[in-house]
Write a structure and sequence with these properties.
five-stranded antiparallel β-sheet, globular, mainly beta, 38% strand, 13% helix, single chain
Length: 77
C-alpha cells in the first residue's frame, strides 16, 4: 500500500508493507525542492534512520535501476 500527501513544503509518500509476516517498517519519502529524504524506523536501535539524497543522486538512482552491473557516470542533457 502507498499513501501520497502534499504538505506545504514537501510531497510525502509512505510505503506500507502488507506482505506476509515478518513485515518491514513503513518507509516515508519526503520530496522537497532541494532534496529527498527516505526515513524508516529501526526497531533494533529504537530510532528513525534518515537518508538524504540530492536531486543529482536521485537522478542517478533512477538511471541505475535500469542498468546492468558496472560503474557509470551520468551526464546532463
Amino acid at each position: 500500500m502507498v499513501t501520497i500527501e502534499h504538505d506545504f513544503d514537501a510531497t510525502v509518500i509512505t510505503l506500507i508493507d502488507e506482505g506476509a509476516a515478518p513485515l518491514a517498517e513503513d518507509v516515508v519519502i519526503r520530496a522537497y525542492e532541494d532534496r529527498v529524504t527516505v526515513e524508516q524506523f529501526d526497531p533494533h536501535f529504537d530510532e528513525v534512520v534518515t537518508v538524504t539524497l540530492t536531486p543529482t543522486m536521485l537522478r542517478d538512482l533512477r538511471a541505475a535501476l535500469d542498468l546492468p552491473e558496472g560503474a557509470y557516470r551520468t551526464r546532463l542533457r
